[in-house]
Amino acid sequence: MMMKIPNLDAGDYHDLVRRFLARLLDKKTVYAVLVAKRYPKGRNAAPVLVRDPEMLEGCAPLAPVQGFNAAHAIVELTREQPGMPRGEPRRIAAVLRPCEVRAVIELIKLKQVQPDNLFLIGFDCPGVFNLKTYRELPDSRAEPLGLAGASADGDPEDLREACRLCTHFTADSADVNLAWMGSDAATSEDGSALLVEVCSDRGSELLKGLDAEDVETPPERDAAVSKKREEREQRFSEDAEDLLTLLEPCVRCYNCREVCPICYCKECLLKPEKMGYTPERHLNRAAKKGQLKMPLDTVLYHLTKMNHMATSCVACGVCEQACPMEIPLGRIYNRVGRHAQALFDYVAGRSREEGLPVTTFREDELADVENVKKEMS
What is the pLDDT of residue 374? Predict the structure, then answer.
């Protein structure tokens, strides 16, 4: 259901979003808002938890940069603590990219996020640049709606590769989606209304009291979204490189694990001491093989990580951005995640009601695999 929030009287699109969020705070619909803001100095933007509507100045959710997946922040903000004082629930509205929304939904299913007092506000994502690339861009390309990737006319070559392969760039699984793609909502002359897509009952609850009006979905929107999705699907279908060659430079720094929103184990079993590696074992393996590459088993590390999180991978690409060796981890995990999820007819973060693969018994699960076994026997 598409709706329009009128009388925001803004100067540009981010100003529209800012006034919308300020109205939520003023009306006490939510206690605080999590939204990306530009740094006062330097070029960057990062999630900020805002309580004072005046402090929303400078918010820029569509800024084409993502230092980390904000699902990490949602875990911190919704974690239940023993002995917390009881009282009025302090509800939070989080403005997130589609990959962040989907990561939060996966973490809800994994019991890492408490969703009761959380509203998810997504938006049509134009994609992001890696941090280093973004800092070196000319000012004209660092603005979100001036970004070529914000249109249906193709993505810039230096856009983060995970974004160039992403087909989930609309936040359909959020409670509310800021739906500007393919419409004039972001560039309207009077700058007075914000076009939003209500995706859940919680979304309808969030918009109560804001005088939101029902509107028709702009026909240009469906065409723009479909065109970009087709381009991305075609790009994704290109042949993949050899996995062992791609992973060869890995130094097992664990950066990809630290930034991944789906990796949440308090004690990681992928550390050498947890895998039973001792000095004696190192020496015995070296004696048996004649040599032993250090650090050990970097490929095994990635294969084990994929096995742990492939069905919940949202392909945000922050792992690739964090890799000091510039391994294309976004492309690798995206491809593995897609294939793993396709086995279960599952898309990570598509729906809160959709059960996690394997953890919920389904009689028809992996039926194709069973059929292949029968044919081979």
Answer: 62
- For the chain, list residues with pLDDT below 50: 146-152, 185-189
pLDDT confidence of residue 155: 80
| Model pLDDT, residue 185 | 47
> Tell me, what's the pLDDT at 146?
46
Q: For residues 217 and 335, give the distance between their C-alpha atoms in angstroms, rounded to a whole number.
A: 32
- Cα-to-chain-centroid distance, residue 153: 23
Query: What is the value of pTM for the model shown?
Result: 0.88
Residue 85: predicted pLDDT: 58
Distance CA 64, CA 160 (A): 10
Rg, C-alpha atoms of the chain: 22
| DSSP-derived pairing of the beta strands 92-95 and 118-123 | parallel
CA angle 198, 204, 206 (to 5 degrees): 105
Q: Which helix (H) or strand (E) holds 118?
A: strand 118-123
Q: How far apart are CA 166 and CA 125, in angstroms?
A: 10
Give the span between the Cα atoms of 171 and 183, in whole angstroms.
Answer: 16
> Per-residue DSSP letters for 15-78?
HHHHHHHHHHHHTTS-SEEEEEEE-SSSS-EEEEEE-SGGGGTTB-TT-SB-SS-THHHHHHHH
| Residue 152 confidence (pLDDT) | 46
Tell me how many degrees the CA angle 348-350-353 measures, rounded to the nearest 5.
Answer: 105
End-to-end CA distance of the chain: 51
Pull the structure tokens for residue 186.
Answer: 């972001």
Spell out the residues 6+ positions from residue 161 whose beta carbon is closer than 8 angstroms to its own.
317, 320, 328, 330, 331
pLDDT at 88 (0 to 100): 67
Amino acid at 169: F
Q: What was the pLDDT predicted at 272?
A: 73
pLDDT for 126 equals 86
Strands 118-123 and 176-178 come out as parallel
